[in-house]
Structure formats: structure tokens, C-alpha cells
Amino acid sequence: MFFTRSRDGRAVPVFSVLIAGLAAAWLHAQPVIAQATAPAQATAPKAEAELPSARSIIDRHIKAVGGRDAVLSHTSQHATGTFSVPAQGLVGTVEIFGAAKPNRAALKVNVPGLGEIASGFDGSHGWSLSPLLGPMLQVGKELEQSKFDADFYGDLRDPARYRSMKTVEKTTFDNKTCYKVSMVREDGSEDFDFYDLATGLRAGSMNTRETPMGSVKTTSIEGDYKKFGNLLLATSVVQQVMGVEQKISIASVEFDKVSPSAFDLPEQIKALIK
Asked: Given Cys at both, which of 7, 110, 135, 206 links 192, Cβ 3.0 to 4.6 Å?
């Protein structure tokens, strides 16, 4: 029950599949449950000089979702919905919390028969808690990445957070013609965003993150954008992790009403802090 199978036949702990990049995938990529979940298929790249700048592509997305001022008008966010791992027949509920000043994030997934799987960053500590591996504190690169991903305004792709941002090519991602944008973080790690030429909205991303199982690559397909207050947010994400597909479908989003207690460390995590 706690394991699923990757495409190469390895047993993969479901909790790792659930946690790897999940909260970040929605908070900053604001997630179509797509029919196809194949990674982007590259087409012949245009000459770099003919491609629009990464900044102009990102700014078009920000304008399409409501504008920079609308993004900055909120200081916290609480989303609820459903989570599933179709190949395993697992279906449960998901809650995602985010807040600014300081940046914090928390994720809770409840699956009948499996229990609660949770992770978070409270401004200082990154952590995860699961029925399989129990409480775990993040350290080193994994902690730094949690801190990076917890940036409440990460959707703005502030250039100060990156070593470089560049439009790589025009390509096909989830059957859409997209611009592929490379973003190299200060630690040298590289993320890729894909922006739909037709709408300007982000169609997905490809990222590498550290997990208790080591470095894991994820592909997220985003879409089904809907209006919540003054922002257009994607309400679902299909994420591939180690050959396993997981889905989030967001039903509700509430702004600026998150209690600080939503980011409190569980007692099991507090016991690990010296």
C-alpha cells in the first residue's frame, strides 16, 4: 500500500512521490488535468535572436493572471482540493498553505488507508512527516530548496533570485506550442518553465529537487485556469515523479485569512530540533 512502481520497475515510496515538489508546483505554477502527461517534445529551435526575452514572456503570464499588483495584494493563501495517484488507486484530500513576511509553506495530504502526509517550511525549518518514514528535518540543499520554493511571490520570477533567465527555444509541451524558459538558480540548479504562445499562461515546468530519496526530476503540466478574487489561477496539475503520475485538482482558494498556526511545527518535528 505504501509503494508504487516506477517505469523501470523500482518500488517507490508513495509518500516521496506525494511530497516531492508538490506544494511548490501549485503555489508557484498555479496548476488541466491533461490527457497526455509526456514530457515536452522538443522541436527544432528558432535562432536565439528571434526569440522574445525571458522577462517579456514571464511578464505576459503575470499580466494574464491579473497583473503584478494583484499578485502583491495578497499576503497568504489557502487552497483545498483532491489528490490522487491513479496507478495506485489512491484518492484523498489536499490542503496547501502559503504566506509572506516571512515566507512559509505547508502541505497536508490525507489518503484513506494511508494516513496524513505533510511537509512544510516555517521560515526557518523545512520538514516532512509520513506514516512510512516518520518525522524528518531537512538540511543542506534540501532545506535551501524548501526556503526558495516557499517564496510567496515566486510566481513573479524575481530576477534577483536567479543567476540567469533565458528563452531557450520554441517547442511543444503538452500538445501546445510553448516558449521554453531556462532559469538558473544561485546554487547552479536549473529549472524550466513552458509558456503557451496562444494564451501567455504557463503550461508547465520541469524541475529538479532534492528529496529523502536523493535528487528527483519532476514534470508538471498546469492548466484549467479559473478566477479567484482578482487572480486567475490554474486549478489542477498533473505531476510526473520518477515515472509515477500524481494529480491535484483545486476546488477552493481563500486569500489573506491563513492563521500563523497553519505553519506550526508538529510535535514530532519539534522533538528533532536541538
From this structure: 206
